[in-house]
Design brief:
The complex is a heterodimer. Chain A is an alpha/beta fold. Chain A folds into 2 domains: about 180 residues, P-loop containing nucleotide triphosphate hydrolases (Rossmann fold); about 70 residues, no CATH class. Helix content of chain A is about 40%, strand content about 25%. Chain A contains 10 helices and 10 strands. Chain A has a 6-stranded mixed sheet, sandwiched between helices. Chain A has a 4-stranded antiparallel sheet with strand order 2-1-4-5, with helices on one face. Chain A starts with a helix and ends with a helix. In chain B, helix 8 runs antiparallel to helix 10. Chain B starts with about 25 loop residues before the first helix and ends in a 13-residue tail after the last helix. Chain B has one domain: MetI-like (MetI-like fold, Orthogonal Bundle), CATH 1.10.3720.10. By secondary structure, chain B is an all-alpha fold. Chain B has 10 helices and no strands. Classes of the chains: A alpha/beta, B mainly alpha. The interface between A and B is medium-sized, with 22 and 19 residues.
Chain lengths: ~270, ~280
């Protein structure tokens, strides 16, 4: 099949193939019989950026933990690339609020750590050129042999992006990745994230507290509500790509943010 | 406008003054204090305020220091006594470190250790451990073994507690990261928990270094033998106070050597720990 043919096929398919599929997912904590999630259905398609937003306690962290294989669901189907998620997997990339780089390893050693853990030291050494390529991608090319103590907060998070990407995961799960950064750095990192996701054609799932961040990054936003945790609305963001920070000042952006805030506000008033 | 500053108002200049003790090099500060204390000491003895049996004069102490130093250099009986004590301290520290480290991992890593073993360790730790000295002598005799045992016994507990605390030190995020990477329990222990806990363990080793000296000398006081402790006790029983002073000073060199070996190892192995600013002496 030539490039042109596959392009035509892709175009005719119109909707990209599903990567992550969740249906009828529920989670009840046995300890206090708390229903954290009830009947959650969602599909992430290839190359899509989806965010989930909601007040604390709406179950979004639980959802992310189940999606990353760190926690089993009570009922429902959770499948990545057609295979059920039963535990942590190499094709799931995760990023946390803190960069959590090990201070006794250099930046590049931190980035190949997932390979080292899963496949051993030799494989980790072999992955170094690829790690260097990722460092170049995020603009940290000169910092490969520096210890994390010398990186700024934004640089450390960029390094943790590389660590997430090194295993070439099918899906990126982002748990408020930039919430510990100052606002200027955060805006900048969001634009970087958009660029990196575009260049690596990543499928990404973001949990965030920030409305503006969710709107500027996402193709779709899932609005969650607590007791029991569930998805109440899916908001499609029609802003064109690539997104820019200037879009935050457009009327359309304001309208979307107001709409979502309204949805969340009604919940808060209950 | 009322809030404009008049042009003729001079600029404010604040000069921060550093305190005189801050601007002094440490060696100078230490020397001044040393000279002051020795001068006071000299006055007290010179004017006969205290009996020379209780407090010998600095000159007497210095001459004994030189005597003991000469004895040590020529390899006389004092050197062999110091060597005996050094061996006691070394083996005591080695045993305490090994047992303390293993027990610390048991307590810090396993539920059994945390729930079943730790309470007993806490109970033993609260006992006055020196009181066990007669038991060790009864079990192991008057030779070096009973002193090693007492020294190790005293020094083990801080290492256990510090090692266990170190294993708890990894953050929730770091544990989650290792879980998400599919790390085994052993991998998590070796690659995350132990390195994270190293600064704690070194703190435990420093406390143990002090304890092992105390244990070794106490053992030699109580159990006789050929060590430095026995030498000190002999001199003390002969009211030879200057000699006691001199022996203690040389003994403290052994303690300092051990302590700073630990500090050196910490600097070498915990190179990343920037926020761990050592105080005056590490």
């Amino acid at each position: 099949m030539t490039m042109a043919e596959s392009q035509i096929l892709a175009d005719s398919a119109a909707i990209p193939r599903p990567v992550y599929e969740i249906s009828r997912l529920s989670k009840t904590y046995a300890r206090n019989r708390l229903v954290a999630l009830a009947d959650v259905n969602l599909t992430l398609r290839e190359g899509e950026f989806v965010s989930v937003i909601g007040s604390s306690g709406c179950g979004k962290s639980t959802l992310l933990k189940i999606m990353s294989g760190l926690m089993p669901p009570t009922t429902g189907r959770v499948a990545l690339e057609g295979k059920p998620v039963t535990g942590p997997r190499a094709d799931i990339g995760m990023m946390f609020q803190q960069a959590t780089l090990l201070p006794w390893k250099t930046t590049i050693e931190n980035i190949v750590l997932p390979i080292e853990i899963r496949q051993g030291k030799a494989a980790a050494r072999a992955a170094r050129p690829r790690a260097q390529g990722l460092l170049d991608l995020v603009g940290l090319g000169d910092f490969a042999n520096v210890y994390p103590g010398e990186l700024s907060g934004g640089m450390a998070q960029r390094a943790s992006i590389c660590r997430m990407l090194i295993t070439q995961p099918a899906v990126l799960l982002l748990d408020e990745p930039f919430s510990a950064l100052d606002e200027l750095t955060r805006d900048f990192m969001n634009m970087e994230l958009q660029r990196i996701c575009h260049e690596t054609r990543a499928t990404a799932f973001l949990v965030t507290h920030s409305l503006a961040e969710a709107v500027i990054l996402s193709d779709r936003i899932l609005v969650m509500k607590p007791r029991p945790g569930r998805i109440v609305e899916e908001v499609v963001i029609p802003l064109p790509r690539p997104r820019t920070l200037d879009m935050i000042n457009t009327p359309e952006f304001g309208r979307i943010v107001a709409h979502i805030r309204d949805l969340l506000g009604k919940e808060a008033a209950q | 406008m009322t809030d404009t500053v008049p042009d003729d108002l001079p600029d404010t200049v604040w000069v921060e003054k550093a305190s005189w003790i801050d601007s002094m090099p440490r060696w100078l500060a230490m020397s001044i204090l040393f000279i002051a204390v020795v001068a006071l000491w000299d006055l007290v003895t010179r004017w006969g305020w205290v009996s020379p049996i209780i407090l010998p004069s600095p000159v007497e102490t210095l001459s004994d220091l030189i005597f003991v130093g000469r004895n040590l250099i020529t390899g006389d009986y004092m050197l062999s006594a110091l060597w005996t004590t050094t061996k006691t301290v070394f083996f005591g520290f080695l045993i305490a470190t090994s047992i303390g480290f293993l027990l610390g991992i048991l307590v810090g890593e396993t539920k059994f250790g945390e729930r079943a073993v730790m309470p007993y360790l806490v109970a033993i730790d609260t006992m006055p451990k020196v009181a066990f000295a007669p038991l060790f002598i009864a079990w192991l005799g008057f030779d070096i073994a009973s002193k090693v045992a007492l020294a190790a016994f005293i020094a083990t507990f801080p290492i256990v507690v510090a090692t266990a605390a170190g294993l708890y030190a990894a953050t929730e995020n770091e544990r989650m990261l290792f879980k998400a990477m599919g790390a085994s329990r052993m991998q998590t222990l070796l690659r995350l928990k132990l390195p994270t806990g190293l600064p704690y363990m070194f703190t435990g080793l420093k406390i143990a270094a002090v304890g092992v000296m105390a244990g070794a000398i106490t053992g030699e006081f109580l159990g006789g033998g050929k060590g430095f402790g026995a030498l000190i006790r002999q001199s003390a029983s002969q009211m030879d106070t200057p000699r006691v002073f001199a022996l203690i000073l040389y003994l403290s060199l052994l303690g300092l050597l051990l302590y700073f070996t630990v500090v050196w190892a910490q600097r070498k192995f915990v190179f990343w720990n920037k926020d761990q600013r050592p105080g005056a002496l590490g």
